[in-house]
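Hey, I was hoping to borrow your eyes for a little while. No rush at all, and the record is pasted right below:
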Amino acid sequence: MIPLPGSFHSWLATMVAGFSQGAETLRISPPIAPGIVPLPLMMLTIGGIFLGTLAISRFSLRIGVPAILGVLLFGLLINPSFSLFNHETILRLQVLSLSILLFNAGLETDIRSIRGFLEYGIILAVGGVILSSLMLGLIIWFVASPDAGGIQLGFRQVPVAVAMLIAACLGSTDAGATLNVLNLVKGAIPRRLAALVQFESSVNDPSGILFLGLVIGLTTLEGGSSGQQGVVVEQVQTFLQKIGSGLLIGVCVSYLGRFSLNRLVRETSQLLILGIAIGLISYGVAELMGGSGFISAYVAGLMLRNHTYSNEQITPQALQQTLLPFNTMTEITVFLIFGLSVYPLELLPALPEGIVVAIALMLVARPASVLLLQRFSPFSLRDSLLVSWCGLRGAVPLALSFEMVDAIPRVRGIDPTAVPSLVQNAGGIVFCVVVINLLVQGLTLPHVARWLKLDEEAPMAVAVTAAGDR
């Protein structure tokens, strides 16, 4: 007898058992427990879905719509067929995706390109998120019904805490979606203005994430009315501490990245591993030490981008180009997973409110927040009008909506019987706003850029930039 591994004996016994039941019931693999998707079927399904996103992206770009919108609708279309991910898995994938997206956003931020308006860019990114979220929250509070599933005017319907949570989810813009559309009209806007839009879209992502965290902390705090003031102060202190710790840890981790680029990496093929490692390490260390992992990931990428290195071939620019395909796949995954996790019929009650909120965001909250900060701007009013129309929402609001719906049941003073409808409709509102925003602004942004005739100012902007470089 030839000794055989135990696993082979188990497989052989299973195959013989299959033969013993007859030719029609031949089975050469162990039975799969009910409710578990077979691995080959899962791999086939995921591969087919990603292949389908390429076709959808190509079609979306042809009609002038951001590709990620097509991916989102594609996931929604095939959603009723199956479910591959549970809620916990989706949350983990969202955090993983956001950390890599923000690290790459830092790598894309070239401080030299925003010379002369760095302060305004930071004011617009941070102040714009806060102002637009507060204004949008008040509008939602005024127009939403008690379950956030319809229109009802007044300030006694939807809880103000839920209205602010929804608005905080929609605070940040999407750099990828905006630049994707602006590429269609490269000659229609000045180079400096495009740099401002990219910088603002990159910086307001961590700003929006932190602001949502602050709103969650303030709306879910515990304690009696006599101690609420102290708890609010504590929440604000925690908010500032997370920002400071995230900044510090991001800078420290960037030195690890610089050392790795100078000493460890010898081939450009290793840059992908380094980029993913630094992005994940910066998030993980910051969260373990009580800081903001998203701020840390962004700062680490920002610091890596704006340093010089001994190896002329292995640079942060090369790291960014290497990470670009992975970053694109990550962004597509965020939209796809969200589309797969939302049931279309559950969106219908939130559709009227979603339309109203989308209109309020595009025509009131976003333009007002930009124009209120115009006094700090070195750009003209026409430039600011374009910036206000560049506020496309994307991956970050969708990812934050999962954190929002988890926080709603913990909001103080909400009737427990109203929680399920509030959770469902709040998520539906965010989904509808993102879709409408990408569709309307994505289709009209090139026309608005041409209508404002900003290309006439492009030569002057290039001259100013060249003078600054000298």
Observations:
- The chain has 18 helices and no strands.
